[in-house]
Each structure stands twice: as C-alpha cells, then as structure tokens.
Fold this sequence. Notes:
Radius of gyration: 10 Å
Low-confidence stretches: none
Helix content: over 70%
Region (Disordered): 1-27
Number of helices: 2
Largest sheet: none
Oligomer: single chain
Strand content: under 5%
Mean pLDDT: 67
Number of strands: 0
Shape: elongated
Amino acid sequence: MIRDRARASPPTPLRSARLRDTSHLRG
C-alpha cells in the first residue's frame, strides 16, 4: 500500500536523496 502511494506521488527531495544514497552504496 505504501509503495503504491509513493509511486503515485511525485518524486520528492527525500526520495531523490535516498536514491542517490543507494546509488552511491551500489557504485
């Protein structure tokens, strides 16, 4: 349910930061 809501909602700075952190960890 939460994931669906996140998908529907527009990209937020928090999500971007999380994505960057994940990318950094992966890279």
